[in-house]
Amino acid sequence: MAPPRPSDDLQVTPAVRIPAAELAWRFSRSSGPGGQNVNTTDSRVELVFDLMASRALPPVLQARALRRLEDKLVDGAIVIAASEHRSQWQNRVAAQRRLVELLQEALKPPPPPRRPTKPTRGSMERRLAAKKQRSAIKGQRRSRPQLPED
Asked: Of 28, 39, 74, 109, which is most buried with the most CB atoms under 10 A?
């Protein structure tokens, strides 16, 4: 499958599509390899998606994403920077891919609650037997007090 074009809407899940109008792009010069090209091309990309103001997500999913991504948000927006490639196009595709992966992880439903269980009788007996054996080994290491010689 071909990577999405940076001007297209982003398909996050089958039910969630982010319109291209809600994505803001910023470009700047990138550090790193690139030869003379690096001094003339704005190949570094910042993709900004305002999660708080977005209308693309249902309120329940938006609240879940805000709660899970709260430490990564800058004023309610997700900012993703990509500068690992020499071309702006590849960096734009990489930034979109990272945004989709981040949102997919944040929108997953919570795992089912853990059902508390009790340890089995056999496991408790094995644990106590191991403790007794370990205690015996350590007891053998202790030095015995010397009796006074008369």
From this structure: 28
Cβ atoms within 10 Å, residue 38 = 15
The number of beta carbons lying within 10 Å of the beta carbon of residue 135 is 10
Q: Which two structure tokens, joined as six digits, stand for 37? A: 């090209």
The mean pLDDT value for 67-78 works out to 90
Averaged pLDDT score across all residues of the chain: 86
Q: Describe the crossing of helices 88-107 and 59-68 by its angle, rounded to 10 degrees.
A: 100
Report the distance separating Cα 88 and Cα 82, nearest Å.
9
85 dihedral zone (left: phi>0; alpha: psi -120 to 50; beta): beta
Output phi, psi for 50, to 5 deg: -80, 95
* pLDDT the model gives residue 43: 81
